[in-house]
Write a structure and sequence with these properties.
alpha/beta
Length: 243
């Protein structure tokens, strides 16, 4: 299982949101590029970066920071409000190895399918952010997690696998930033049904035991943000659990 430290950027600073809520932001003193170097020096090979300004306003002010993160030698997976080919190209020009596409895959699937045809499955990651409805069915959330679609997580995953997608960043929104543990049962269910999907777990990791559970559940990778920032454990310990 691949360990992917996460850095969320807002106004070129390291922040974390609770369940994606901009009104519940915690700002960290870390310089984002220095933090990326620290994760690299501790053994990480990948870095997950979210441009929150891009997601909210379409701003590109964090792209220069992301480019400097790429220069550390880390393989960077990044996204944040990718709504057009121009934004996709901007991330690729900054050196991002995999661009994360979320809401657009639901809102404009034909456009995103064209990108898969052009760039291939290794250059794009589909962010499938989901929340359980009253009946317990996980529905895809879009527009910064403010809109719950009728499309469910499993059928959306199946449809995109058929279109050639491979990397799926799956977040249980209610777990994100809460340090309450990941939804292991969700990833186990997805891994059992979609053996060809490269599932990247996101949301809720707070202890090393969570990593062991996710590995056993079949997750191919896990994104870890707040637990690392708060010092609950370090990258070397996380890498050991993922072996």
């Amino acid at each position: 299982m691949i360990i992917i430290p996460a850095i969320d950027l807002r106004a070129q600073r390291v922040v974390r949101l609770l369940q994606g809520d901009f009104a519940q932001q915690q700002t960290y003193a870390n310089d984002p590029v220095e933090l990326a170097r620290t994760y690299r020096d501790q053994g990480a090979q990948w870095l997950h970066v979210v441009d929150l300004d891009g997601a909210k306003t379409g701003s590109t002010e964090n792209l220069a920071v992301i480019e400097r993160m790429v220069a550390t030698g880390l393989r960077v997976q990044a996204g944040g409000g990718v709504r057009s080919r121009a934004q996709l190209d901007a991330f690729l020009k900054a050196g991002v190895e995999r661009v994360v596409v979320g809401s657009l895959a639901v809102k404009q699937p034909q456009l995103v399918a064209q990108w898969f045809d052009e760039f291939g499955a290794e250059r794009l990651t589909l962010a499938l952010d989901a929340r359980a409805d009253a009946g317990g069915v996980f529905r895809i959330a879009t527009a910064g997690w403010t809109e719950l679609e009728t499309a469910d997580l499993e059928s959306t995953t199946a449809a995109w696998l058929a279109k050639g997608a491979r990397h799926f960043l799956v977040t249980d929104i209610d777990r994100d930033g809460m340090l309450g543990g990941p939804n292991v049962a969700l990833y186990r269910s997805l891994a059992a049904r979609f053996a060809n999907a490269h599932l990247v777990a996101s949301g809720g990791v707070h202890a090393l035991a969570d990593l062991r559970a996710l590995r056993a559940a079949g997750a191919a990778a896990v994104v870890i943000g707040k637990a690392l920032l708060d010092g609950r454990f370090g990258v070397p310990d996380a890498l050991h659990q993922a072996e």
